[in-house]
Write a structure and sequence with these properties.
There is one protein chain. This protein has 270 residues and is mostly helical. The protein has a single domain, classed as Cytochrome c-like domain (Cytochrome Bc1 Complex, Chain D, domain 2). Helices cover 47% and strands 7% of the residues. The protein has twelve helices and seven strands. The strands form three sheets. It has a three-stranded mixed beta sheet. A hairpin with a 2-residue loop joins strand 1 and strand 2. Helix 3 crosses helix 7 and helix 6 crosses helix 7. The two termini are 40 Å apart. The structure holds heme C (2 copies). One heme C (HEC) binds next to helix 9, helix 11 and helix 12.
Length: 270
C-alpha cells in the first residue's frame, strides 16, 4: 500500500518535471545528427543530454568564458612592436573564419607541422616580439578557443600532403602501437576508422574537433595536448611533455581522422 502511494507520487513528480526535461533533451537530440558524419562521431554523441545541453547553450557553456577572454586578448597590444593580433589580422570573425579547420598544419617556414597553440605563439614571438604563452595558460587556451570558435560548425579539413606526410605517419603509428604491460593502444579504446561505427556505442572515438574543451572532471578548459597526455597514462606511456613532437604528430593524426566533423570548440565533456 505504502509502495503504491510512493509509486503514484513518483509518477506524479516525473509528470511535473516532464515538459522541461523533454525540451532540453529534444534540443540536444536534434543536434546529435550534426555530430556524426558517416562512421565518425564526435564525443558529443556519447555525452549525456545534460552535458550536451550545457554545451549548446552559449550562456551555460563554461568554455565561452575563455572565448570572451580570447576576444579581448585579440585586440590587446603586447610585445616590443606594440601590436595586437588585430593590428595585422583585423576582425577575427572574417580573417579567422575557417582557419582552424586546417590545423594542425604544415608550416613551410618552420619546416614542421604545428598546432593552433604553436601558431599563435609563433606570431607572438616573431610578429609581436612578445613572450610565447605557456601551455595551458589561460591566455593561450583563450586565444585558441576564440580562433577555433570562429570556425564553429565548419567541417574539419586537415590536409596531409608532401612534407606533412612523415608527421602524419608517426602520429598514426603512435595511435595504433600497443604499449605497456596490458598491450593497449589508443585504438584499443577509441577504435580504428574501420571499426568506429561499432565502437561508438561504448567509448568515444577520441576525436579532437571540440578542443580546447571544458571537462567537468578537469573543472577547466584544456587543450587537445592535455587530453592526449591524460590518455597516455591510460596506456602506461610516460606522458610526453605538452607540445612535444610526438604529441603534435598524434594531434595531427587525430585531427585528420576527424575530417568532416564540425568544429565544436568549446565542447563540454564529463
Ligand atoms: C605583425 C603582424 C602580425 C601580428 C601582430 C600577428 N600575426 Fe598572425 N600572422 C601574420 C602573418 C604574416 C601570418 C602568415 C605567416 C605564415 O604563414 O607563416 C600569420 C598567420 C597567423 C595564423 C595562421 C593563419 C593560417 O592561414 O593558417 C594565425 C592563426 C595567426 N596568425 C594568429 C595570430 C594571433 C592569435 C596573433 C596575436 C597573438 C597574431 N597572429 C599576431 C602576421 C601577424
Ligand atoms: C583505456 C582506454 C583508453 C585508452 C587506451 C586511450 N583513451 Fe583516450 N579516452 C579514454 C576515456 C575514458 C576518455 C574520456 C575522458 C577521460 O576519461 O579522459 C578519453 C578521451 C579521449 C579524447 C577526447 C575525446 C572527446 O571527444 O572528448 C581524445 C582526443 C583521446 N582520448 C585520445 C587518446 C589517445 C591519443 C590515446 C593514445 C595515446 C588514447 N586516447 C588512449 C580512454 C582511453
Amino acid at each position: 500500500m505504502k509502495g503504491l502511494i510512493a509509486g503514484v507520487l513518483i509518477v506524479g513528480g516525473l509528470l511535473l518535471q516532464a515538459p522541461a526535461r523533454a525540451a532540453d533533451t529534444q534540443a540536444a537530440d536534434s543536434n546529435l545528427a550534426k555530430y556524426s558524419v558517416g562512421t565518425k562521431h564526435s564525443g558529443y554523441v556519447l555525452a549525456s543530454p545534460a552535458t550536451r545541453a550545457m554545451e549548446d547553450d552559449e550562456f551555460q557553456n563554461p568554455g565561452m568564458l575563455w572565448v570572451e577572454t580570447g576576444k579581448k586578448l585579440w585586440s590587446t597590444a603586447d610585445g616590443a612592436n606594440g601590436k595586437s593580433c588585430h593590428s595585422c589580422h583585423g576582425d577575427a570573425a572574417k580573417s579567422m573564419k575557417g582557419i582552424a579547420t586546417a590545423y594542425p598544419k604544415f608550416n613551410p617556414r618552420l619546416g614542421k607541422v604545428i598546432d593552433m597553440e604553436q601558431r599563435i605563439n609563433a606570431c607572438r614571438a616573431k610578429a609581436m616580439q612578445a613572450k610565447p604563452y605557456p601551455w595551458e595558460s589561460r591566455e593561450l587556451l583563450a586565444l585558441t578557443a576564440y580562433i577555433k570558435n570562429q570556425s564553429h560548425g565548419m567541417p574539419m579539413n586537415v590536409l596531409v600532403t608532401g612534407a606533412a606526410v612523415p608527421s602524419f605517419e608517426k602520429g598514426k603509428a603512435l595511435f595504433m602501437a600497443p604499449h605497456g604491460p596490458k598491450g593497449l593502444s589508443c585504438a584499443s579504446c577509441h577504435g580504428t576508422l574501420e571499426a568506429s561505427a561499432k565502437l561508438a556505442a561504448t567509448q568515444d572515438q577520441g576525436q579532437t574537433n571540440g578542443f580546447p574543451a571544458y571537462r567537468l572532471t578537469w573543472q577547466t578548459l584544456g587543450s587537445a595536448q592535455r587530453q592526449i597526455q591524460d590518455c597516455e597514462r591510460h596506456i602506461s606511456v610516460a606522458p610526453h611533455p605538452l607540445g612535444s613532437p610526438a604529441d603534435i604528430d598524434l594531434e595531427f593524426y587525430l585531427a585528420w581522422r576527424g575530417n568532416g566533423l564540425p568544429v565544436e570548440t568549446p565542447a563540454v565533456r564529463k
